[in-house]
Write a structure and sequence with these properties.
10% helix; 6-stranded mixed beta sheet; 2 helices; globular; 5-stranded mixed beta sheet; 11 strands; mainly beta
Length: 158
């Protein structure tokens, strides 16, 4: 079975992008909230998984992801820098079918590097031009054709 979800939306408040000019100075003093994406079961009669974003402190996020498998972490800068969001699957660890993730919103225009977690060792990306790139292991830079231009991703094990 192919696991799919659509419309990954990262809230502006979690990314520290809301507020007036004074908010930027206040944000610099305190670290931004940490967020994770939790993949939920498909709606009845569909194969489309839904994603729920949770933001908060480490303890509350660990509790939210307790029954999940960490699949990957996305980063907004090369070499695993910038904003990070970790993705957790509910349908068990990666297998040959894996998980397919349609990115939209923030991550489709800001993904520059990512880490995969065992056994999700294989990944592929497709950009808006339809180009596909097959990767193995962590990716410290997605490359010029995919930097800030990732339409979908798939992770799986062999």
């Amino acid at each position: 079975m192919r696991r799919t979800f659509t419309s990954i939306l990262v809230s502006a408040s979690c990314l520290g992008l809301v507020g007036g000019p004074g908010a930027a100075r206040a944000q610099a003093a305190a670290p931004p909230s940490t967020c994770i994406l939790l993949l939920e079961d498909a709606a009845p009669g569909t194969h489309t998984l839904t994603a729920v974003e949770r933001c908060g402190d480490a303890r509350s996020l660990a509790a939210a992801a307790a029954d999940r498998v960490q699949l990957m972490s996305w980063y907004s800068e090369v070499d695993y820098g910038g904003w990070r969001e970790s993705i957790y699957g509910k349908a068990g660890p990666c297998n040959q079918a894996g998980y397919r993730l349609d990115t939209s919103g923030y991550w489709s225009r800001n993904l520059s590097s990512y880490r995969v977690y065992d056994p999700c060792w294989w990944s592929s990306m497709t950009n808006d031009q339809g180009e596909e790139s097959l990767r193995q292991g962590d990716v410290s830079y997605v490359g010029a054709s995919f930097n800030d231009n990732v339409a979908s991703m798939r992770v799986w094990s062999r």
